[in-house]
Amino acid sequence: MNKSRLLLATVPLLAVLTACGGGAQDDGRASVVASSYPFAFVAERVGGSAVDVTNLTAPGTEPHDLELKPKQVASVQDADLVIYQEDFQAAVDQAVDQAGRSDDDTIDVASLVELLPNPSEEEGEHHADDGHDHGDTDPHTWLDPRTMSALAEAVSTELSRIDPEHAADYQANADRLVDELTALDEDFTAGLRACRTRTIVTSHAAFQYLAARYDLKQVAIAGLDPSNEPSPAQLGDISRLVRAQKITTIFTEELVSPAIADTIAKETGATTATLDPIEGLSDQTKDETYLTLMRRNLDTLKKANSCQ
């Protein structure tokens, strides 16, 4: 009797363990794990209905501070494809390293673009130590639409290798997305061509790739991580710059406290507006997409910088 009970108790446990293993989904779809929203967006658009995409960064979560649950760590181990960017989310870097994944089943977005230097180090700024190591480069690559086009092509290539049966669909989906991203890039170029000022004051240093692409100058209140705090001297420098250049808008973010930006705006007579770094979705933007958020950013920039 005891042996029978032990066998009955073991069967459900084995079923649970079996369900947790393996990369492919029970319905035959390829499984993709993306570290944050921009990469999940591309995976969903390119993969379509043939792919199951998991975003490790839930809406409302500040992606720099992401901590993974054991189930999420297991998903990094088991997925057919992992898309992430090294030196952006330490917990994801660690999970990828622990999983021992190869270049054949992992896309590191940093390998697709020429990374720009950490803007804080370039300008000799020293923010308070926040416990995060973002390295010597800026990880916010996705705010350049051309980076997203390169990622779409890379995802199509990898998914076609993993799932050759749907290769034509993946390529067609990638082509459509690249067309939309190209149109977005062209609209940014045209919309920001002639502006009264080309300086943008942002909550944290997330917009260097966007600024570099469209000939803007980013002045960041915080460093690469929004939890960094500027020194009083830095705040004074920013306030003087805002007055000298007659900057009308200080940009805040959905997932970052606006307190310091509000203070600068109040002291200088500027207003505030939201410029979304699209690191992750918030409760307010969970129904938006990368494309709609970028176009909202474009409208915000054109208004704030008096662009013709």
From TrEMBL:
SUPFAM superfamilies given for it?
Helical backbone' metal receptor
Positions of region (Disordered): 120-144
Classification via Gene3D superfamilies: Nitrogenase molybdenum iron protein domain
Q: Which domain of life is it from?
A: Bacteria
Give the residue range of the signal peptide.
Answer: 1-24
Q: Is Chaperone given among the entry's keywords? A: no
According to its UniProt entry, the protein's GO biological process terms are:
cell adhesion; metal ion transport
Tell me which InterPro entries the record gives. AdhesinB, Bact_metal-bind_prot9, Lipoprotein_PsaA-like, ZnuA-like
Write the record's keywords in alphabetical order, separated by commas: Signal, Transport
Q: Where is the composition biased (Basic and acidic residues)?
A: 124-143
GO molecular function terms here? metal ion binding
Q: Which family does it belong to?
A: Belongs to the bacterial solute-binding protein 9 family.
The entry's protein name is Zinc ABC transporter substrate-binding protein
| Organism from which the protein derives | Aeromicrobium yanjiei
